[in-house]
Amino acid sequence: MTAEIKTGEKMIVFMINGKEYAISVSQVKSIEKWQKPTRVPGVESYIRGVINLRGVITPVLDLRKRLNQPEQDITEETRIIIISYRDADVGWVVDEANDVITVHENEIESAPESQTKEADVWIKQIVKQDNRLLNIIDAHAVLDKGASASASGEPNA
C-alpha cells in the first residue's frame, strides 16, 4: 500500500541523521516528547520497547536504526512520532520533528532509483521546496516486516 502524496497535502517534516524526511499528517496521530521505552526481550534490534501513552501500550521503534543510520544520543529535540498502523499505534523515534509544510503538485517528484533496494521500498517520492529536498516516507512500508525482508532478499516471515 503506497501512499502517494497529493497537491495541497500537509506533511510533517522530521530529521534523521541531518536529513529531512516527511510523512503525511493523515498518517500521524501525535508527536510526543521523548520518554524512555521499557525494553521487550526477543524483538528486532530497531525496536526500542514500549511506552504507556495515555493508557495505551505503544511499541516504539528507532527509525534511525530501521533506516540503517548510525545511532545518536537522545537530546532535548528527540521526538516520538505516533503513527496509525493497521489497527494500532506505533511510535517512531526521530532526531527532531518541528515543521509542517503544504505540498504543491509542481514540488512532487518520483524518487530516483537509490543505491539500496531497501530505500526504494520506503521512499517513493521526493518533495522539492525552496532549497529543501524531503524524502517522503511510506509509513506502511517501514512498518511492514515483509517490505524489509523483500528488499534484502530474505523470505517474508
TrEMBL record:
Q: Which InterPro entries match?
A: CheW, CheW-like_dom_sf, CheW-lke_dom
| UniProt key word Isomerase | no
Q: Which GO terms describe its cellular component?
A: cytosol
UniProt cross-references to PROSITE patterns, sorted A to Z:
CHEW
Query: What Pfam families does this protein's entry cite?
Result: CheW (PF01584)
Gene3D superfamilies xref list: CheA-289, Domain 4, SH3 Domains
Per the annotation, which location comes first and is thus the protein's main one?
Answer: cytoplasm
Q: Which UniProt keywords apply?
A: Chemotaxis, Cytoplasm
Where does the record say this protein resides? Cytoplasm
Report the superkingdom from the record: Bacteria
Q: Which residues form the CheW-like domain?
A: 8-148
Gene Ontology terms: biological process: chemotaxis; signal transduction
What is the protein name for this chain?
A: Chemotaxis protein CheW
